[in-house]
């Protein structure tokens, strides 16, 4: 296996067959999400992992009538924080201290830098925080392909309704994107055997010399 083969194997899976994804494979995908970079290392999002059929059906009926939501094995819901509070920064700095132990002077300087950066992002805080989630989504898609687990990013859902079903607002969170994980239903998925539609490289890349 190599990366390009993995990426050619993956596609936006439109129908899944309900087969369970083994936990070891799910764990690899979750670890890849956790290893994704985020601006300033803030990692200001959460990922809900939903296996429960009743809850998946509720989301299908109430917020996202796309079949993969109920046919998948695990439904990942990526949700961003809606604010970066002083308390959140405290816990982030505790984490840096515990994991990397960079020393008090470094921590103070870095905190100042983050507080400054947050002021700069104040106007578009939600957009900026949301961008971070998409990087993790990309890592998850690649990891899933490497594990030969099918997936599909899903943005076509009613965010307000999903937030209400999962009570996200109360938790200071807002849903961004979904990622059903599972296995393709080859007989019913019109997208399973379609050729990839991608630009020729010369329409995408501009080499500056
Ligand atoms: C952020 C994002 C949101 C998407 N939302 C949906 C969606 O709601 N439903 C769906 O079936 N596919 C969705 N897609 C899949 C894209 O349509 C698909 O990735 C694109 O057409 C390229 O095809 P491929 O992934 O099969 O190579 C989404 C993809 C991305 C990256």
Describe the structure.
- The protein has 209 residues and is α+β, with helices and mostly antiparallel strands.
- It has a single domain (3-204), classed as 3-Layer(aba) Sandwich (NADH Oxidase).
- Helix content is 47%, strand content 12%.
- It has a 4-stranded antiparallel sheet, sandwiched between helices.
- Helix 2 packs across helix 7.
- The longest helix has 22 residues, at 125-146.
- The radius of gyration is 19 Å and the shape is globular.
- The chain starts with a helix and ends in a 5-residue tail after the last helix.
- The model has no long low-confidence stretch (mean pLDDT 96).
- Flavin mononucleotide is lined by residues 11-12, 14, 66, 152-156, 177, 196.
What structural category characterises the helix and strand content? Answer: alpha+beta
Bound molecules: flavin mononucleotide
Total domain modules? 1
Q: Percent of residues in beta strands?
A: 5-15%
Mean pLDDT: 96
Given the C-alpha coordinates, what overall shape results? globular
Which H/E pattern describes the elements? Answer: HHEHHEHHHEHEH
How much helix, percentage-wise, in residues?
40-55%
List keywords for this structure.
4-stranded antiparallel beta sheet, globular, 9 helices, NADH Oxidase, 209 residues, alpha+beta, binds flavin mononucleotide
Sequence-ordered SSE layout with sheet pairings:
Blueprint: H1 3-9, H2 23-35, E1 45-50, H3 53-62, H4 68-71, E2 74-81, H5 86-100, H6 104-120, H7 125-146, E3 150-151, H8 159-165, E4 173-182, H9 201-204
Antiparallel strand pairs: 1-2, 2-4, 3-4
Helix pairs in contact: 2-7
The structure holds flavin mononucleotide (FMN).
């Amino acid at each position: 296996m190599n990366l390009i083969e993995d990426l050619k194997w993956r596609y936006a899976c439109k129908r899944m067959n309900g087969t369970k994804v083994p936990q070891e494979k799910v764990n690899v995908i979750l670890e890849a999400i956790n290893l994704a970079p985020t601006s300033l290392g803030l990692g200001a999002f959460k990922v809900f992992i939903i296996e429960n059929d009743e809850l998946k059906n509720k989301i299908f009926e109430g917020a996202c009538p796309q079949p993969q939501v109920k046919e998948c094995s695990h439904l990942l819901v990526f949700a961003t924080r809606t604010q970066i509070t002083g308390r959140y920064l405290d816990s982030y700095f505790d984490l840096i201290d515990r994991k990397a132990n960079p020393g008090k002077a470094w921590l103070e300087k870095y905190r100042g830098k983050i507080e400054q950066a947050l002021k700069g992002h104040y106007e578009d805080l939600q957009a900026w925080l949301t961008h971070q989630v998409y990087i993790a989504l990309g890592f998850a898609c690649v990891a899933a392909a490497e594990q030969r687990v099918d997936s599909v990013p899903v943005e076509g859902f009613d965010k307000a309704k999903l937030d209400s079903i999962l009570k996200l607002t109360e938790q200071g969170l807002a849903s961004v994107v979904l990622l059903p994980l599972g296995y393709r239903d080859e007989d019913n998925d019109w997208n399973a055997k379609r050729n990839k539609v991608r630009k020729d490289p010369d329409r995408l890349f501009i080499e500056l010399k």
